[in-house]
Amino acid sequence: MKKYLCIGGSIANLIASYHLAQHSEVHVIEIHAEVGMPTSQPGFVSDMELLSPYLDEEQFKFLRPHANESGWGLRSEWLTKHLAMNAAQQGVTIHTKTRITSIAPENDQFIVEFQGGGPTPRSHLTFDHIIDASMCVPEAPGNLQHTIDSKLEIYTALKDPTPWFGGTALTTDCGEIDSEAWSFNRTEGLSEVWFEGEPTWEPKHGWIEQVRSNLSSEAAQRTIDAQILIGRRISEAFV
């Protein structure tokens, strides 16, 4: 049985791990204490049907998607947590609060050493393939980072990412948003507003939540739809 490591609990990695676990041993290493917290993915989806294979009816209701002109707005951290739970039920092993300290190629495999907060804080595992989506996850507290040699021949989930600022604000504050921003509405009278680089606008009552993340420079690739399709492509690349 092949062994796969997905670095970073991104939506794309969770979708890929869900499919790969049907025929392989899969591990997800997440540097934060929880998958999806903090969020790094804009909560916008154009086609809700893409989520159907991965969520049950109760999970759909819990997300409370809010209709926008061209799609739906929802809390991406809630979606990510549901996807992580369903991946775990599929057999995926998820290591949270865990940092990779080294990756060494050996005989067409990779020996991965890591530190974590569980009963075995230091350990290592051997994998056949590695999928790196660490650039899709916000920085960990204390600037903790994985140690990954850029020269390694591993699959990278996001090519040439650009830095973005994302904020949550009251929808009533978002009537006249800067034209450079990308915004959409969620439930409970809240909206998400995203800027490439630094924000050029601020809501009257301030930001409720803020996050900095690496996203694609292409608009169509910044949606949840794109993350699902990327995850599927990753899993199909190793069939």
Give a brief outline of the structure.
Helices cover 19% and strands 31% of the residues. By secondary structure, it is of the alpha/beta class.
Main sheet record: 5 strands, parallel
Order of helices and strands: EHEEHEEHEEEEEEEEEEH
- Give the C-alpha Rg: 18 Å
End-to-end span in angstroms? 12 Å
Give the proportion of residues in helices.
10-25%
Number of strands: 15
CATH class of the largest domain: Alpha Beta
User: If you average the pLDDT, what whole number results?
Assistant: 89
CATH H level of the largest domain: which superfamily? FAD/NAD(P)-binding domain
> Ranges with pLDDT <50 over ≥5 residues?
none
**3D shape:** globular
List the strand order in the largest sheet: 6-2-1-10-11
User: What would CATH call the architecture of the largest domain?
Assistant: 3-Layer(bba) Sandwich
CATH topology name of the largest domain, in short, is FAD/NAD(P)-binding domain
The total tally of domains equals 2
Classify the secondary structure makeup into a structural class.
alpha/beta
Task: Give the percentage of residues in beta strands.
Answer: 25-35%
How many helical stretches?
Answer: 4
Protein architecture, described:
This protein is α/β, with parallel strands linked by helices. It folds into 2 domains: 3-46 and 76-160 and 220-237, FAD/NAD(P)-binding domain; 162-215, no CATH class. It contains 4 helices and 15 strands. Strand 13 (182-185) and strand 14 (190-196) form a beta hairpin. It is globular, with a radius of gyration of 18 Å. The two termini are 12 Å apart.
